[in-house]
Write a structure and sequence with these properties.
By secondary structure, the chain is α/β, with parallel strands linked by helices. β1, α2 and β2 form a beta-alpha-beta unit. It is built from nine helices and 16 strands. The N and C termini lie far apart (44 Å). α3 packs across α4 and α6 runs parallel beside α8. The chain has an eight-stranded mixed β-sheet, with helices on both faces. It has a two-stranded antiparallel ribbon with strand order 3-4.
Length: 300
């Protein structure tokens, strides 16, 4: 048997291994939060586009929600506007909101849509303002004072400007796109009752959309392999009931906390499974969905 035939057989075995997973996810909705290094590396951007197109071709409904924090900071820097953060959240005044919307909706979103279409897919770009897709309200954040004499005082209300939280998702907009075989690509900008735009964390938007659609899976692409235990070993599966303990003992800390909280909220809203993946790994979405071993951390 020649080497070409042997390689062909190995490829066929990979397809056969993937078959039951393809059958399981057919006609199901998968929401992917696209961010991190996978959004800035040209090679990984193209592989992501091809992965999404493949999902659509085999009958899966992918929905993409993207971030764009570094791109926003680049334009703010060019305009001489210094970004400000409170407890990890961007303070968004009117001027900053204009930049956020310009970058996320006018630049990043169109680049992702263009790449998917260039690679043979059918993508449509949206923001949460289109068709009132993502309705929002002002996010209210309070913080305890650190001063010793004020420690027992009521929490201090922090004004983050036009930073929002999702109140409702209009799934009809997405369902109409499904019927025409389009892939929705969504910028995390919401709309308030007064028509004003709100800047919303992309993880939260992805989780809310996944919950509203009762998605089969929510995937968060990050720049880390997943959740690690205290010894640094990857935790491949975590049950939702374990999260509070893992946060309390410091196993889950820092920027991973809001991501697992997002997964927890999505599970409570009816999403079947959630997963945190390393977007720096080529074809990480396909490896997670169509192989026995999977990659990253699954939260169920």
């Amino acid at each position: 048997m020649g080497q070409n035939v042997a390689r062909g057989i190995e490829k066929a075995k990979v397809l056969i291994e993937a078959l039951p997973y393809m059958q399981e996810f057919r006609h199901k909705t998968i929401v992917v939060k696209y961010g991190g290094h996978a959004m800035v590396d040209d090679f990984l951007k193209k592989q992501f586009a091809l992965d999404v197109i493949l999902l659509k071709q085999i009958g899966i409904n992918p929905v993409i929600v993207h971030g764009g924090g570094p791109q926003i900071n680049q334009l703010l820097d060019r305009l001489g506007i210094k970004p400000s953060y409170v407890e990890g959240m961007r303070v968004t005044d009117g001027e900053t909101m204009d930049v956020v919307e310009m970058v996320l909706v006018g630049k990043v979103n169109k680049e992702i849509v263009g790449l998917i279409n260039h690679c043979g897919g059918k993508a449509v770009g949206l923001s949460g303002r289109d068709g009132d897709l993502v309705c929002a309200e002002k996010l209210k954040v309070s913080s305890r004072r650190k001063d010793e004499e004020l420690r027992n005082a009521p929490p201090e209300l922090i004004d983050l400007g036009r930073v929002g939280q999702v109140t409702r998702v209009n799934t009809g907009v997405l369902e109409s796109l499904y019927r025409e075989d389009f892939i929705p690509v969504i910028a995390p900008v919401g709309v308030g009752d007064d028509g004003q735009a709100f800047n919303i964390n992309a993880d939260l938007v992805a989780g809310a959309i996944a919950g509203a659609l009762a998605a089969e899976k929510l995937i968060l692409l990050t720049d880390v392999p997943g959740v690690r235990d205290r010894q640094g070993q990857l935790l491949t599966t975590i049950e939702r009931q374990q999260l509070a303990g893992l946060i309390a003992d410091g196993t889950i800390a820092g920027g991973m906390i809001p991501k697992v909280r997002c997964c927890e909220a999505a599970l409570c809203q009816g999403v079947a499974k959630t997963c945190i993946l390393d977007g720096r790994v080529e074809h990480s979405i396909l490896l997670e969905m169509f192989t026995r071993e999977g990659v990253g951390t699954e939260i169920i």
